[in-house]
Amino acid sequence: MTTEKVSDMEMIKLSDYFVPQTFRTVSTELLGQSGGITEVSVIFHIHGDFAKQLYFNYSGVLTLYGFGHLNDTLKAINQADYMHYGKPGLIDKVSMNDCGDVFIMVIELKNGEKILKKVPTSEVKLLLNSCRHPTPMEY
Questions:
Q1: For residue 62, which phi and psi values (nearest 5 degrees)?
Q2: Other Cβ atoms within 10 Å of 65 Cβ, number
Q3: Taking burial as the number of CB atoms within 10 A of a residue's CB, which of 60, 87, 93, 100 is the most buried?
């Protein structure tokens, strides 16, 4: 992705989408599983420099997996209150890609569209360090 494209993206507050109180990381074994009916799958692609800022044991893997509850912002994008069962929503998954000073959040929709937003690295760090983690972390 070019620097121009990144600089043109909207910078958002991650807390408008995900908050630590309703976010959890999961081990790689749960990657193929769906979360709860109100949870969306989130994949974090991180670099070594960012990984050094994480306070939990993640086994040194530079891809982390998690689930976040659909809040009002995500429900509006999803056009449904649930991810599964009955009326399926539009969101397929979310990825967070480490670009140094910022992360690029990509919300992938089932129709192939992608919504891209910039997120301050400090907010991703806060989310990952403050959310729920399985014990022990085995990625």
A1: -100, 15
A2: 19
A3: 93
End-to-end CA distance of the chain: 28
Cβ neighbours for 27, distance < 8 A, ≥ 6 positions apart: 65, 134, 137, 138, 139
At 65, give phi and psi (nearest 5°).
-125, 145
By DSSP bridging, strand 91-98 and strand 102-109 are: antiparallel
CA distance linking residue 69 with residue 67, whole number of Å:
7
* Ranges assigned E (strand) in the chain: 23-26, 39-45, 63-69, 91-98, 102-109, 114-120
- Residue 102 CA to its chain's centroid (Å): 14
Rounded CA gap, 14 and 32, in Å? 25
Structure token pair of residue 8:
């043109």
The whole-angstrom separation of Cα 60 and Cα 22 is 24
User: Strands 39-45 and 91-98: what pairing?
Assistant: parallel
Q: Which residues pair with 58 in a beta bridge?
A: none
The yes-or-no verdict on residue 60 having pLDDT over 60 is: yes
Question: How far apart, in whole angstroms, are the C-alpha atoms of residue 18 and residue 80?
Answer: 17
Our measurement of the distance from residue 125's CA atom to the centroid of its chain's CA atoms, rounded to an integer in Å, reads 12
Tens-digit pLDDT profile for residues 88-113: 789 999 999 999 999 999 999 999 99
